[in-house]
UniProtKB/TrEMBL annotation, chain A:
Keywords: Cell membrane, Membrane, Transmembrane, Transmembrane helix, Transport. The keyword Cell membrane applies. Residues 345-564 form the ABC transmembrane type-1 domain. It comes from Yoonia vestfoldensis SKA53. It holds the Pfam family DUF3333. It is a multi-pass membrane protein. GO terms for biological process: phosphate ion transmembrane transport. It is found in: Cell inner membrane; Cell membrane. GO terms for cellular component: plasma membrane. Belongs to the binding-protein-dependent transport system permease family. CysTW subfamily. GO terms for molecular function: phosphate transmembrane transporter activity. This is Phosphate transport system permease protein PstA. InterPro entries: DUF3333, MetI-like, MetI-like_sf, Phosphate_PstA.
Automatic annotation (TrEMBL), chain B:
Part of the binding-protein-dependent transport system for phosphate; probably responsible for the translocation of the substrate across the membrane. It comes from the Bacteria. The lineage of its organism: Bacteria, Pseudomonadati, Pseudomonadota, Alphaproteobacteria, Rhodobacterales. PANTHER family: PHOSPHATE TRANSPORT SYSTEM PERMEASE (PTHR42727:SF1), PHOSPHATE TRANSPORT SYSTEM PERMEASE PROTEIN (PTHR42727). InterPro entries: MetI-like, MetI-like_sf, Phosphate_PstC, PstC_N. GO terms for biological process: phosphate ion transport. Keywords: Cell inner membrane, Cell membrane, Membrane, Phosphate transport, Transmembrane, Transmembrane helix, Transport. This is Phosphate transport system permease protein. GO terms for cellular component: plasma membrane.
Length: 575, 519
């Protein structure tokens, strides 16, 4: 074919090497498109990665800081030691957490701290609600409300008067809707009178001038809604009680304070300045995520009176934002204020220990056998197929295997105490890691040049000696790298651990040492705690602390991977 | 006496004996003239260590495992059939068939045995802490003494309430446990000492210690390499046995073609619904529908992106760009799936909802939420596999194509991709298998807690998948093999295992064939 082209029979094309024809340009254009498509695909994926990491860091880092109220905690003898005399640890131990500690100590300490800082608690709350009422009235054009409210003997009286006026307006709207013109006029005038009595002269005139059949016009003024809202707002301060005050801080079940007092009863009667966590919903107001204006912007379960107090506390410098150290030591808890990943870190470390011992010993031994000793026969072939398949089995199937082992052992009489132990979790994860380590070890053993083996055998070493004295040390860096990568994978595995009960074993505080049975205690693990945090009822926990826990996990993962890379760079040998 | 022969003490003794064996063996071997011995002194020493420790440690492990089982069997044996604790009352028997009574009494018996064993260990702990003597316990009466409270106050973990029947059986079982717990350590200790003595006496100039030691080592190596087979066999057994009993109970075709999934917690063998069927509806169709739907979305995202990325990286990108992009993609591949799941739940889900509106997408969890994120997770998987495959296309094909005047793009599209096609399809099949088996993303982002029971055609609606149902049933206080729902979940895992196995084998064959073509 090429001969034909060279023969000269083909007419000379009028084209130039320097000038591209339309066809060539078109062909190159397709190339450019392909190149751009590839480039944008990679950009898209990298952008996704960037957004993923950003969403974790931008949420997780702020959540690691916690707003705390600086409270002078007074260990009140009246609460802790009602019968007087010497205080004993047992006595304190029996005091009810809710009534004694939450109400008796925390709430009253908070109250006195605020008062000492010059905050008038009830006054602050009622001023905010009054301002809210005036705002509502002003918005509807009922001007001069502040004087009217101030004139009333108490806010409750003002609320009653405003409420009555509101009812009068509502009655007027209803009457004007009806057919009875006289009744409509009477009701309209009554409403105007009520407004006039209150002091809203302008509004009264406006109501009086409305056509009695035009109920829509009266409704459009918005007076009724404004009056009712204002009345409601003015009634709120009266409902502000200790429970509303103490809900600002996290005082629920303060077991730690009780334990501290049990250990040291001499503290009773003393005052201690402590940081008490602010309720986790309020933190979103403090961080500016929720503005506190309008229902959608309120922290769930709180009202503006409480927020006014929070503002006052911020102004009096009673609220500090400090690093949440206890997040790294506390056990998991439903309450975001005190939840932590301490036992989870520990449990994960234990599991990684089990994985390391089990899969390293068995993985390396299996690879040595397959690579160096195994005859090429059906049996070893079968083993190889098995390892390849184990590598591709979905992780949840390993979880099912773990669950089956768990149920079987329970049926066989090992009791349910083996559910969720670090040993069981570690063994399941080891089976998943085994193929990774086998593949890495075999590659590392293969990379050792045969000349070394030949030399060892040549000077009279046995095969076992050749492998253990020469090949294995040279392959060690590769094996180590593979092991670290396998462990990093195992660290993030969640599904198998969920199925063997690690998500329900939330009771464990800190585990004992692995040598004294710590492996057989109910454990938590990082990924399962992340899972639990992600399903918490409070949005700040779901979106904040879950990300902090992920951040910790990712930092560990990256550290492991970087360690693997460094080891590879440092010890890698090329022959 | 009995208190000192416990397993920890015996383990310590064995370790000490092994260390002593090493030292003594070495000393004895050193006493021979160096030229006349077959093996080196440390090989003799190791021989003593193995002979001392290996058999006895093996006995310890087996004993620990089988003692629990034996004690359970023994408890079952000594529990009288006419004990009130394990019999249904006449009232409860009414209207039940013979088989149902048997099943319920079986459940009672299992609970009783578990209760007795936890009581026995609680009593052991109570006595060991010095809270009571054996004579005290012999005088306890469950009807008058608050035994459970007493034990719990002593820091013991206890199951259900304590009855006199439990107490009497527990005392018998404790005696048995004590005996077993003493005999086991003694046997292993005797083995250790015997091994120690025999191995030390065998040391001589002619003794081929190295050969024996190496035999021990290769024995262990072979044992270790059968672990992979053991794991596979264990998985198969764990999946098959419960699945078979589920299929027998519920009907294989009822499961495979069932159109609804609504577990209700029936006990196996006792269909409580009307017309003698189970109340739980355990149909496979909605689950496989959800699984395949999400996998399809994931592949639609992952395959174009992954392929384009691979083509760009292997054919167009500069060496510098490659050295930056590849590690970045590896980061994406190394992120745990639960992180993707949470990202989908709190970032992608609300974003999609804002885009398409709340009428089309009532929840933030949906097929698209899970599918898009899973697709992104699979991109590095597909791109690195395809990258390998594309790089394995012989350079001669590239050079030939360029030499006859094709542009680079034409070479890629018309020569390299067709040549690499089997490998690329293999990569896609592998990705599909991963998508089907993926758990945490779908649990968090596809509606794990939703009560969807049937087929949901809306891509922005929540679905149920195979893996989410497995997690939903087995998370929490799973009730063991006596619930039909748990058995059904094993059947789900069984089908999942075989689907992914088939896909993996298919992919492996394709890649292997492709390799053969160019080798």
């Amino acid at each position: 074919m090429s001969d034909a082209n060279l023969s000269g029979a083909v007419p000379i094309r009028k084209s130039s090497l320097l000038e591209q024809s339309a066809l060539v340009r078109k062909r190159h254009r397709t190339g450019t498109i392909l190149r751009w498509l590839g480039f944008s695909a990679i950009t898209l994926v990298l952008m996704f990665l960037a957004i993923l990491l950003w969403s974790i860091v931008s949420r997780g880092v702020p959540a690691l800081f916690q707003y705390q109220a600086q409270i002078e905690l007074y260990y009140d003898p009246a609460v802790l030691n009602p019968d007087g005399g010497d205080v004993s640890a047992e006595e304190i131990g029996t005091i009810n957490l809710r009534t004694g500690f939450e109400r008796g100590i925390f709430t009253s300490s908070l109250r006195s701290t605020l008062e000492n800082a010059g905050i008038d608690i009830e006054g602050t709350v009622s001023r905010r609600w009054t301002a809210e009422a005036i705002g509502a009235l002003d918005a509807a054009g009922l001007t001069g409300a502040s004087a009217i409210i101030a004139a009333a003997p108490t806010p409750a009286d003002a609320a009653r008067q405003l409420g009555q006026a509101g009812s009068a307006v509502r009655a007027a709207v209803a009457a004007m809707d009806g057919d009875d013109t006289n009744a409509a006029i009477t009701a309209r005038d009554a409403a105007a009178q009520a407004l006039n009595d209150l002091g809203f002269a302008q509004a009264a005139d406006r109501v009086a001038s409305i056509d009695p059949s035009d109920s829509a016009a009266l409704a459009e003024t918005g007076y009724q809604a404004a009056l009712t809202d204002a009345a409601g707002a003015l009634r709120q301060p009266a409902q502000f009680d200790d429970a509303a005050l103490s809900s600002i801080i996290f005082a629920t079940n303060r077991r730690d304070v009780r334990d501290q007092l049990v250990d040291n009863p001499d503290l009773v009667g003393t005052t201690e300045k402590t940081g008490v966590p602010i309720d986790i919903s309020v933190t979103r107001y403090l961080s500016g995520e929720l503005s506190g204006v309008g229902t959608a912007q309120m922290p769930p379960g709180f009202d503006i009176g409480q927020l006014a107090l929070v503002d006052a506390m911020v102004e009096a410098d009673l609220i500090s934002n400090s690093f949440r150290w206890h997040f790294f030591t506390n056990p998991y808890s439903q309450s975001g204020e005190i939840t932590g990943i301490g036992p989870a870190l520990m449990g994960s470390a234990y599991m990684m220990l089990v994985v390391l011992v089990f899969s390293l010993v068995f993985g390396v031994a299996a690879s040595i056998y397959l690579e160096e000793f195994a005859p090429k026969n059906r049996f070893t072939n079968f083993i190889e197929i098995n390892i390849a398949n184990l590598a591709a089995v979905p992780s949840i199937v390993f979880g099912i295997l773990g669950a089956a082992i768990l149920f079987t052992l329970m049926d066989l009489g090992f009791g349910s105490s083996i559910r969720g132990t670090a040993l069981l979790g570690g063994l399941v994860l080891s089976l998943m890691t085994l193929p990774t380590i086998v593949i890495a070890t075999r590659a590392a053993l293969k990379a050792v040049p045969p000349s070394i083996a030949d030399a060892a055998l040549g000077v009279g070493a046995s095969k076992v000696q050749m492998v253990f004295h020469h090949k294995l040390p040279l392959a060690a860096p590769g094996i180590l790298t593979g092991t670290i990568i396998g462990i990093a994978q195992a660290l993030g595995e969640t599904a198998p651990l969920l199925l063997i009960g690690l998500s329900v074993s939330t009771g464990a505080a800190l585990l004992s040492s692995p040598f004294s049975g710590g492996l057989l205690e109910q454990a938590q693990s990082m990924p399962t705690v992340v899972y639990l945090l992600a399903q918490n009822q409070d949005a700040p926990v779901r979106e904040g602390l879950a990300q902090s826990a992920i951040l910790v996990m990712l930092v560990l993962l990256f550290a492991l991977n970087i360690l693997a890379i460094i080891l590879r760079r440092k010890f890698e040998r090329r022959w | 006496m009995g208190a000192f022969i416990t397993f920890p003490a015996v383990l310590l003794l064995i370790v000490l004996l092994a260390i002593a064996g090493y030292a003594l063996g070495r000393r004895k071997a050193l006493s021979f003239p160096a030229q006349s011995t077959h093996s080196r002194p440390h090989q003799h020493a190791w021989h003593v260590v193995f002979a001392t420790a290996a058999p006895s440690l093996l006995v310890v492990m087996l004993w620990l495992f089988f003692a629990g089982i034996a004690s359970n069997i023994y408890t079952n044996m000594v529990t009288p059939d006419d004990l009130v604790d394990v019999r249904l009352s006449a009232q409860a028997r009414e209207g039940l068939t013979e088989r149902e009574i048997d099943i319920r009494e079986g459940v009672l018996r299992t609970q009783f045995v578990a209760g007795v064993r936890s009581l026995a260990s609680a009593l052991d702990g109570y006595v060991a802490d010095g809270n009571a003597t054996e004579a005290d316990i012999a005088g306890w009466n469950a009807e008058q003494d608050p035994i459970a409270d007493r034990l719990r106050a002593g820091g013991q973990v206890l199951g259900p309430a304590v009855t006199n029947g439990m107490l009497s059986v527990a005392q018998v079982v404790r005696q048995f446990d004590r005996r077993v717990g003493t005999v086991g350590p003694i046997i292993s200790l005797v083995l250790a000492i015997a091994g120690f003595v025999i191995a030390l006496r065998r040391i001589s100039a002619e003794f081929r210690a190295r050969v024996v030691v190496e035999r021990w080592i290769s024995g262990f190596l072979i044992f270790a390499s059968t672990m992979a087979i053991l794991a596979t066999v264990a998985i198969l057994a764990a999946l098959t046995l419960p699945s078979l009993s589920f299929f027998r109970e519920y009907g294989f075709f009822n499961f495979l073609f069932g159109m609804a999934w609504a577990p209700a917690g029936d006990v196996v063998g006792i269909p409580e619904g009307r017309d003698g069927s189970y109340q739980s509806a355990l149909g496979f169709v909605p689950l496989i529908w959800g699984t395949l739907y999400i996998s399809l979305v994931a592949l639609l995202v992952a395959v174009p992106l992954g392929l384009l990325a691979a083509v760009y990286l292997s054919e167009f990108a500069s060496r510098r760009a490659r050295s930056w992009v590849k590690p970045a993609l590896e980061i994406l591949a190394g992120v745990p799936t639960i992180v993707y799941g949470i990202f989908a739940l709190i970032t992608i889900g609300p974003f999609l909802q804002a885009v398409v509106g709340a009428t089309v997408m009532p929840n933030t969890v949906s097929v698209m939420t899970a599918g898009v994120v899973m697709g992104m997770m699979l991109v590095p998987f597909i791109s690195s596999l395809s990258d390998d495959v594309i790089n394995a296309v012989p350079q001669t094909l590239r050079d030939g194509s360029l030499a006859i005047g094709a542009t680079q793009a034409e070479t890629v599209v018309q020569v390299i991709l067709p040549a690499a096609l089997p490998g690329i399809v293999g990569a896609i099949v592998l990705a599909a298998s991963r998508a089907i088996g993926e758990t945490m993303i779908v649990v968090l982002a596809a509606g794990a807690l939703s009560n969807v029971q049937g087929i949901e055609p809306n891509p922005f609606g929540a679905v149920v998948t195979v893996t989410t149902r497995i997690v939903a049933v087995l998370t929490g206080e799973g009730s063991g093999f006596d619930s039909i729902d748990v058995l059904a979940v094993f059947a789900l895992a069984f089908t999942l295992f075989f689907i992914t196995l088939a896909l993996n084998l298919l992919a492996q064959r394709m890649v292997a064939k492709y390799r053969e073509q160019y080798d």
